[in-house]
Design a protein that fits this description.
By secondary structure, the chain is mainly α. Helix content is 65%, strand content 5%. A four-stranded antiparallel sheet has the order 1-4-3-2, with no helix packed on it. It is found in: Membrane.
Length: 339
């Protein structure tokens, strides 16, 4: 997911990662991340077959937080300090985790996981549209504006606008699109409020997921009843969604960003709807109209165009990608939001 926590926080906060060479090639990790996030929509669908959407989201956040807590313990990282930082993290947790995760879970009660995966691919489109308004340094270009228009044309194709959206659940589809919209809203908020805090990305994200889990822990009992039984397969799906789709995926994404940069790492976004569609059709037996894959290709093409930026004149040794300055300081990789 392009605007999943990993990609967003890396492009807005400090990064302190040792310059190591992982044993596993980055291309293999890139492929694994694509599969993990692509199958996440299938796992949501399986989880909601037995548990309420809020319960699926809560389980996802609890398992994901546990993975990051373990990683923090291994690296001896501490949670960030400061009431103001925690206040901003609480808002970020709602916009980037609690809200979109819950919306996707509710949407898949009435729409196929394939459609949810494709709706997720609209995040770069929403992000580009919002950044033109909210971020003064993000200037529009003809190519990017054309990509925005092309992307939303793809959305209309997926929805089958010429048929009056026949056969689609309007509420479920709107929830999935709203979830995708929530990611760039959270990204802009994080970029404006939490850039340059000095805390490591691991501690910040660990705190954010913890706060999201607390938020769902408060809300879930108010709107759901405790399950009378715990079917194994849906429970395993929720556990996998948290451990793999949230916790491990974030750690893998951070490693990719540190090694190949955010621009290359976020290309995973363009593989997710393809994998989500294939998984939904092959595993869950979901039907697929011709307009869905055609529209998805148009959406991805538009999203790719919105990421095209003018060449930077940064001096040698400094790489600027996605509004982030990355440089090597004292043997460590440092990243900060560009003013």
């Amino acid at each position: 997911m392009c605007y999943e926590v990993a990609c967003i926080i890396v492009t807005a906060m400090s990064i302190t990662a040792p310059r190591t060479h992982p044993a596993l090639d980055w291309r293999l990790r890139f492929g694994a991340l694509s599969l993990i996030w692509g199958f996440s929509f299938l796992l949501i669908k399986v989880g909601t077959e037995a548990y309420a959407p809020f319960q699926v989201t809560l389980g996802r956040l609890v398992f994901g937080t546990a993975v990051l807590a373990a990683a923090m313990a291994v690296k001896r990282e501490r949670l960030p300090r400061g009431a103001r930082t925690w206040g901003h993290l609480a808002v970020a947790a709602f916009l980037l985790n609690a809200l979109p995760f819950s919306l996707f879970a509710y949407s898949e009660l009435t729409i196929p996981s394939t459609l949810a995966g494709i709706c997720n691919a609209t995040s770069p489109l929403w992000g580009m549209a919002l950044s033109l308004v909210a971020l003064s340094e993000d200037r529009p270009t003809r190519v990017r504006v054309a990509g925005l228009g092309l992307g939303f044309l793809g959305v209309l194709t997926v929805l089958g606008v010429w048929q009056g959206f026949h056969g689609l659940d309007a509420t479920g589809t709107a929830m999935a699109l709203l979830a995708s919209f929530s990611y760039p809203v959270g990204w802009i908020y994080v970029r404006r409020t939490l850039a340059g805090t000095g805390h490591s990305h691991l501690s910040m994200t660990g705190a954010q997921l913890l706060l999201a889990a607390v938020q769902l822990g408060v809300v879930t009992p108010l709107f759901t009843t405790f399950p009378a039984r715990f079917p194994v397969v849906p429970l395993l799906a929720v556990a996998a969604l948290g451990v793999l789709g949230t916790g491990l995926a974030i750690l893998v994404q951070y490693g990719l960003v540190a090694e190949v940069g955010p621009t290359t790492a976020q290309m995973v976004t363009y593989f997710i709807p393809v994998i989500a569609t294939g998984a939904g059709v092959a595993v869950l037996g979901e039907s697929l109209r011709w307009s869905t894959p055609v529209g998805a290709v148009i959406v991805l093409a538009g999203a790719a165009l919105t990421q095209v930026r003018a060449r930077s004149s940064a001096p040698k040794g400094v790489g600027v990608e996605e509004g982030v300055r990355v440089r090597v300081v004292g043997g460590r990789s440092r990243s900060s939001s560009r003013p």
